Amino acid sequence: MSGVVSTTPAVARPATARPIPQHVGIIMDGNRRWARARGLDPVEGYREGARRLGEVCEWAEQAGLTALTLWGLSTDNLKRSDQELSGLLPLIGETIEELAALRRWPVNPIGDLMALPGHLRAAMERARDASHRAPGMTVNVAVAYDGRREIAHAVRQILCAGTIPPADADDPAGNWQHLIAEHLYTRNQPDPDLIIRTSGEQRLSGFLLWQTAASEFYFCDVPWPSFTRDEFDLALDSYASRHRRYGL
Asked: Cβ distance 2 to 48 under 8 Å?
């Protein structure tokens, strides 16, 4: 797909004293609404939205992030019509492979990949293998993703391995929390400091349920295909202006 990503070398933004998130998650919402507002087929909204991926990776890298998680498709989205999915699923595979082909960022597919058609699962695995030695920030691409499934998957892995942690009298749940975190799709990565959702909806919809316990949230009305560098910077500015509190 032409124009998915830019090959312009990253240029770091000037260093400032403002807090910078290590990890940002983005719920890329509003592709279909963008298309409907223009009288276009829904897949054209996704196609335009795909063109933002490389750009937002550059913006995130220039801002100093170490990880970026982009939610492209939920498990519920797989229930959409065959007509829509026939255009959307190949587009996702093509986009992810093009992103990985730049060898600028390790592309890490996350989600219930076994729920995907074989051709898309294979494309995501090729993208992961082609980019795993890339030097930049980690780019998680969430496809067939559901936060409850992720937690259930982690617990199932722990139980299947028989690695039940010993109880700690001072913190009975602490060992379990650590063990579950080690089996999430984002293991060995910092939890997201900031979650951005586009297109006006103000809910998580199951995105990174475990990891967002202490995250900050930023909601904007702009649909994903119209998301710009200015909107991204506004989200970072909003994050920087907050005094983060852990707990109540």
From this structure: no
Is residue 213 pLDDT above 50, yes or no? yes
Q: Binding site annotation covers 29?
A: yes
E strands in the chain: 23-27, 67-74, 107-110, 138-145, 194-197, 216-219
DSSP E strands, 15-89:
23-27, 67-74
72 three-state secondary structure: strand
Active-site pick, 41, 77, 112, 175: 77
Length of the chain: 248
Annotation says 29 is catalytic: yes
Q: What is the pTM of this model?
A: 0.90
What pLDDT, on the 0 to 100 scale, is given for residue 16?
Answer: 53
Q: How many Å apart are CA 135 and CA 145, to the nearest integer?
A: 26
Token pair in block for residue 235: 């989200």
Strand, coil or helix: what is 171? coil
Q: In what order do the strands lie in the sheet with 107-110?
A: 107-110, 138-145, 67-74, 23-27, 194-197, 216-219
- Active-site pick, 29, 146, 191, 193: 29
Residue 216 annotated as binding site: yes
In contact, 136 and 106? CB cutoff 8 Å? yes
pLDDT at residue number 231: 97
- Residue 163: per-residue pLDDT: 74
The pLDDT tens digits of the residues spanning 127-184 come to 999 999 999 999 999 999 999 999 999 999 999 988 777 766 567 677 888 899 999 9
The annotation status of 30 as a binding-site residue, yes or no, is yes
